[in-house]
Amino acid sequence: MKQIGLLGGTFDPPHLGHLIIAEEVRANLGLDEIWFIPSQEPPHKQKATTDAVDRAEMVRYAISTNEYFKLNPIEIERPGKSFTIDTIRQLRDENPNTDFYFIIGADMVEYLPKWKDIEELTELVKFVGVERQGYKVKSEYPVIKVQIPTIEVSSTAIRERLQNGISVKYQVPEPVETYIKEKDLYE
Ligand SMILES: Nc1ncnc2c1ncn2[C@@H]1O[C@H](COP(=O)(O)OP(=O)(O)OP(=O)(O)O)[C@@H](O)[C@H]1O
Ligand SMILES: O=C(O)c1ccc[n+]([C@@H]2O[C@H](COP(=O)([O-])O)[C@@H](O)[C@H]2O)c1
């Protein structure tokens, strides 16, 4: 059986927090790969300001130096809201003999009861929760807890810094910073 970690997100933009949690979970649980899945439309929050193609491209740059990290475009190729249950059903059909681990920050763990078809989803994937400042990895659903060195970086804060001309150096990987500048993404 292959053991694959999934990190779904809006990635607007991808940042060091995403890379750290993905690597810590991979190493801690001994997973074969981590697939990064940028959403077309996040199901529960405002539509991203940045085109899905740009967000996916930034993810590609962000993960390029880790041989275990892969970009999976499954949600970008599916129009409409990116519900995780739809993604997992498709991934399971296309990848027999694979166990999937869905990585979520503690802010998302709290929100799990509101996810679409959550009861079925917990049968199809193992959720892995990581700490995030201000939130606890606590749920009525089974969630594997992985300790990480917490880093309170968020896409929202990065966009705000960029809009105010404040440096985001070291918060996003260098090629992502270059891409943002070249495409004037968050001005
Ligand atoms: N610094 C962080 N520590 C732990 N988990 C994180 C961190 N940043 C993001 N995550 C988790 O990564 C996943 C994808 O996050 P997302 O792409 O929405 O970025 P974000 O920084 O949370 O964005 P936003 O600022 O809009 O909340 C979510 O499960 C989220 O909880
Ligand atoms: O399927 C759902 O109902 C659902 C509700 C909220 C979030 N998610 C998924 O959780 C991941 C992180 O969400 P976000 O908004 O932090 O990018 C992303 O892959 C979303 O599609 C999924």
From TrEMBL:
Superkingdom, taxonomy of origin: Bacteria
GO terms of molecular function: nicotinate-nucleotide adenylyltransferase activity
UniProt-listed CDD domains: NMNAT
Pfam families listed in its UniProt record: CTP_transf_like
Gene3D superfamilies the UniProt entry points to: HUPs (3.40.50.620)
Pathway: Cofactor biosynthesis; NAD(+) biosynthesis; deamido-NAD(+) from nicotinate D-ribonucleotide: step 1/1
Matching InterPro entries: Cyt_trans-like, NadD/NMNAT, Rossmann-like_a/b/a_fold
Function field: Catalyzes the reversible adenylation of nicotinate mononucleotide (NaMN) to nicotinic acid adenine dinucleotide (NaAD).
HAMAP family: NaMN_adenylyltr (MF_00244)
Protein name: Probable nicotinate-nucleotide adenylyltransferase
